[in-house]
Design a protein that fits this description.
The complex is a heterotrimer of chains A (334), B (274) and C (289).
Chain A: E1 4-13, E2 16-26, E3 31-35, H1 42-50, E4 57-62, E5 65-66, E6 77-80, H2 92-102, H3 107-120, H4 136-148, E7 154-158, H5 166-183, E8 186-191, H6 194-200, E9 203-208, E10 211-216, H7 218-223, H8 228-233, E11 240-243, H9 245-248, E12 254-257, E13 262-265, E14 271-280, E15 284-290, E16 298-303, E17 313-318, E18 324-326
Parallel strand pairs in A: 3-8, 3-9, 6-7, 7-8
Antiparallel strand pairs in A: 1-2, 1-4, 4-5, 9-10, 11-12, 12-18, 13-17, 14-15, 14-17, 15-16
Helix pairs in contact in A: 2-3, 2-4
Chain B: H1 7-35, H2 39-42, H3 55-64, H4 67-97, H5 103-114, H6 122-131, H7 138-162, H8 166-174, H9 179-208, H10 212-216, H11 224-229, H12 239-258, H13 261-268
Helix pairs in contact in B: 1-12, 3-12, 4-7, 4-9, 5-7, 7-9, 8-9
Chain C: H1 4-35, E1 38-39, E2 49-50, H2 54-61, H3 63-95, H4 101-109, H5 116-127, H6 134-142, H7 149-152, H8 154-179, H9 183-191, H10 196-223, H11 228-233, H12 245-255, H13 259-285
Antiparallel strand pairs in C: 1-2
Helix pairs in contact in C: 1-13, 2-13, 3-8, 3-10, 3-12, 5-8, 8-10, 10-13, 12-13
Classes of the chains: A alpha+beta (334), B mainly alpha (274), C mainly alpha (289).
């Protein structure tokens, strides 16, 4: 079981309120990602759930029982740290065994669980090595192994992939995803990378300055961002956001259109401009169109085979029903 | 700087460096050589080849009971270092892993006590030792040396502990470790190299301390530093014997010292030079 | 980073060290301050009385006091000059690609581990002795008459001994600093055509400036308290020619049993040391984040 409920959880460091009162429900078995720019309080929130920091106010319930004052050891959660935080003086086997040893589990059961975890994570050949002798990806697996053996009610991940290179990161992301499919245990995952968030999450929590901007499924956030911040944060390349006259035409302060929702043509359309930089990825092409009369450069996604280049004159047309309109406060106009 | 140099340049610098090193080391070398001479040889003029007699070493032991000051030195150096560690380890642990707004100030203040000149408190310490019968006792001197070196011990341990990432201790807490488990299984094994280095440097410092040991001991608690200082009186001047006593006094610490170069820099500059 | 639980435990763990050092600092210093205003002689403890500023006046007007201040200054500055200049030169020398670097290092740092009385006795008897010392042997070899170092140049002789003890410290610290110098930076300067001496002036020296400062400050703290070397060699003499402030206070307290006078001297020593300490603390404090 791993149902976690935050009720009015608040965190202050001295006079600074890093997390204003916050409510959140995490269902058993859910994969929840906290995402936001650095300094948005996502890691602090995770550490509050872990018990590594005290809450200033509010309650944390784990499976319905109040765990606000419980020590980290008593909460039954496992955590994977950004730096992996492996014990450098212990072998891989001892690292993985440590939480079991702390729980006072008998030796045979320990060995059985370690063998199973090592097998699942491809660590069997490395069990007698020290963490210092392992590669980044292997260390990451040891950290995950140490977390899964004790069968916690929830896993907490604190930017676990940020120390890996790009290729490894994609691989580990898949492994974590498979792990969740297999274990069906609640996972809370903190990242600043919205691609990780989109690919992993059942539910994304977008945080900004300690506040929850929006909670929803990845597609929900992508299709229906509730405000300008979420609209700009989710999606790569970023959604085009226009202010001024173009927005006023729609009766909004700001309008947003995703790059794939703008048609590009050499014959005619709403905005006339000139291709600046163009990126040809094969499957898609991205054009950064300038001199449109809009204040901002417009990003457009088009088919991979379209033959446009730097300096070409083009016409752009947004799909009317895909334009997001935001009011003065940055909130979506329904 | 790994740069290509010609063989000749390298040989040239090597000769200069060895010449300088030997000049600096010469007084020690010459003392060791003289300690293996007979008294007649020792005053017969410059000579680097001794007859390799152990006569002087025997004399020092039989006439002056060398073993007693040696044991006193061991007890004082090791005892004061262990005492200091017992007090300093928890303090350094707390300051490194649970810092407060005042931690920096406390550390600086501790450092400042190290800068108090010993002679400034000679009068009160001397009177206190007289009053409480601590004169020429090992216990009094052990406690005093502990206090003198405590700031350095706290500082060194603090800088070593700071290098242990906090996340590892948090990981242990998440893994269900109690504070006791955390200290026993995680912190101590990781801190052992730092604690050993700190011990090493402080044994050296305590062994070589020569103000308080001379002021506060006469015979029964006198360590080697005070014992050797008594050789300055004219009646005891025998070159080979002096050399033998000196060699025995510095040999153990010289060898320890060779292993402690890195710690020396860290410990004596309070982390200001790395 | 800590939770309330660990914070209160931390307070408990810090306490013994802080309390011990607090007592160690406050009690003796307080007593020194108190005694410095007393007429108190251990030879005649019955007539102890309040002295006001008398002890300070007495100290100040004593010609030995001014001598000792001057000697302290000469001793500190002389040793600093030798050790810092020598230390820079030797550090650069050891940092060169030489054969047996590790062994050279060990030989050079060895004097630091020789306890002060031994260092002083070695130099006094083995090296500088007017009839049996190595210097005398060298003089005889060249046919000149040997110098009686401690009688003719007492302070200079002590400076030599102390400098020999502290040269390894300066060398080691400066070498550590030198080794952290960015090799690419030096190579870039070489590519830019900077000759060796200008690389030294503009790159090496500024890089070592911090280490040099630390060496000067830390050594000064220790050099102000030079004691055993004087005790073993010249006993402060001839006259007051090699008496520094530390030795003067020691004599007042232990040989003249003048508790009040020695305490007043101690207060002066604290003031002097504090002037240096303030600068040292700043240098160290910058390094704490």
């Amino acid at each position: 079981m791993g149902r976690i409920t935050l009720e009015g959880v608040t965190k202050r460091f001295g006079d600074v309120e890093v997390i204003p009162p916050l409510n959140l429900d995490i269902e058993d078995g859910e994969f929840v990602v906290f995402v936001g720019p650095s300094g948005c309080g996502k890691s602090t929130l995770l550490r509050l759930i872990a018990g590594l920091e005290d809450v200033s106010a509010g309650r944390i319930l784990i499976d319905g029982t109040d765990a606000t004052e419980a020590s980290p050891a008593k909460r039954g959660l496992a955590m994977v740290f950004q730096s992996y935080a492996l014990y450098p003086h212990m072998s891989v086997r001892k690292n993985i065994a440590f939480p079991l040893k702390m729980a006072g589990m008998d030796k045979a059961e320990q060995d059985r669980r370690i063998a199973a975890a090592a097998n699942a994570l491809n660590l069997t050949d490395y069990l007698d090595r020290r963490p210092g002798q392992l590669s980044g990806g292997q260390r990451q697996r040891v950290a995950i192994g140490r977390a899964i053996v004790r069968e916690p009610s929830a896993f907490l991940f604190d930017e676990p992939l940020s120390n890996l290179d790009a290729a490894l990161r994609v691989g580990m992301r898949l492994e974590i995803s498979e792990l969740h499919t297999r274990l069906r245990t609640t996972m809370i995952y903190v990242t600043h990378d919205q691609v990780e968030a989109m690919t992993l999450a059942d539910k994304i929590v977008v945080l900004h300055a300690g506040r929850i901007e929006q909670v929803g499924s990845p597609l929900d956030l992508y299709m229906r961002p509730r405000n300008v911040f979420v609209a700009g944060f989710i999606g790569s390349p970023k959604m085009n956001l226009f202010t001024g006259e173009a927005a006023a035409e729609y009766g909004a302060r700001t309008i947003g259109v995703r790059p794939e929702h703008i048609a590009i043509s050499t014959e005619g359309g709403t905005w006339k401009g000139r291709v600046g930089v163009s990126e040809h990825l094969g499957s898609d092409s991205f054009f950064y169109v300038e001199d449109t009369g809009l204040a901002e450069t417009v990003t457009v996604r088009a088919d991979g085979e379209i033959g446009l280049h730097h300096g070409d004159e083009v016409w752009l047309t947004p799909s009317e029903d895909k334009v997001h309109k935001f009011d003065d406060g940055g909130d979506l106009i329904e | 700087m790994a740069r290509a140099v010609t063989r000749n340049t390298r040989i040239g610098w090597t000769i200069v460096a060895w010449a300088v090193a030997l000049v600096i080391f010469f007084p020690i070398l010459y003392t060791i050589i003289t300690s293996f001479k007979s008294e007649q040889e020792a005053i017969a003029g410059f000579d680097l080849i001794p007859s390799l007699t152990l006569e002087s070493y025997q004399t020092v032991q039989t006439q002056n009971n060398y073993f007693r000051p040696f044991m006193n030195s061991v007890i004082l150096a090791v005892g004061s270092t262990l005492l200091a560690l017992i007090v300093a380890i928890p303090a350094a642990w707390a300051m490194a892993f649970s810092p407060t707004r005042h931690t920096k100030n406390i550390l600086m203040w501790m450092l400042s006590t190290k800068m108090m000149p010993a002679v400034a408190v000679l009068v009160p310490i001397y009177l206190i030792f007289l009053r409480f019968g601590l004169m020429d006792t090992r216990i009094g001197l052990t406690v005093l040396l502990m206090l003198i070196n405590l700031p350095i011990v706290v500082w060194m341990l603090y800088t070593y502990f700071r290098e242990i990432p906090g996340e590892i201790l948090e990981a242990a807490r998440m893994d269900g470790a109690s504070l006791r488990d955390e200290i026993l299984y995680i912190l101590t094994p990781m801190a052992v190299p730092g604690i050993a280095s700190t011990m090493l440097l402080n044994v050296i410092l305590a062994w070589n301390e020569a103000f308080w040991t001379i002021q506060l001991t006469t015979t029964s608690a006198a360590p080697l530093s005070a014992f050797i200082a008594s050789f300055s009186s004219p009646q005891g001047l025998f070159w080979a014997k002096l050399s033998a006593a000196s060699t025995m006094a510095i040999a153990p610490i010289l060898i320890l010292g060779w292993f402690s170069q890195k710690q020396l820099v860290r410990g004596l500059t309070f982390g200001a030079v790395k | 980073m800590a939770t309330r639980q660990t914070a209160s435990l931390a307070r408990l763990m810090r306490a013994p060290a802080i309390i011990l050092l607090l007592i160690w600092m406050v009690v003796p210093l307080g007593m020194t301050l108190y005694y410095s205003f007393l007429n108190y002689n251990l030879l005649n403890p019955a007539v102890t009385s309040w002295a006001g500023w008398f002890n300070y006046q007495y100290f100040y007007t004593d010609p030995a006091f001014l001598d000792s201040l001057w000697n302290t200054l000469v001793l500190v500055v002389g040793v600093l000059l030798i050790t810092v200049c020598g230390g820079i030169a030797i550090a650069i020398l050891i940092d060169k690609p030489i054969f047996g670097q590790g062994l050279v290092r060990i030989l050079v740092i060895s004097p630091f581990f020789v306890m002060p009385p031994v260092a002083a006795l070695i130099w006094k008897n083995m090296i500088m002795h007017p009839s049996y010392g190595v210097f005398a042997d060298i003089a005889k070899f060249f046919g000149t008459s040997p110098v009686d170092w401690f009688a003719q140049y007492p302070l200079f002789s002590i400076i030599i001994i102390v400098a020999w003890q502290w040269l390894p410290f300066a060398t080691l610290i400066l070498l550590t600093s030198l080794q952290s110098l960015d090799g690419e930076q030096m190579e870039a300067a070489e590519m830019d055509g900077a000759p060796a001496y200008s690389r030294f002036i503009h790159l090496v020296l500024p890089h070592m400036a911090r280490a040099i400062t630390v060496v000067i400050l830390i050594q000064t703290i220790f050099l102000l308290s030079i004691y055993a070397e004087i005790l073993v060699t010249t006993n402060g003499g001839p006259g007051t020619a090699s008496t520094n402030l530390t030795y003067l206070i020691y004599r007042a307290a232990r040989l003249n049993f003048d508790i009040g006078g020695a305490a007043a001297g101690g207060v002066i020593a604290v003031v002097l040391a504090n002037i240096v300490a303030i600068f040292l603390m700043r240098a160290v404090g910058k390094n704490l984040d």
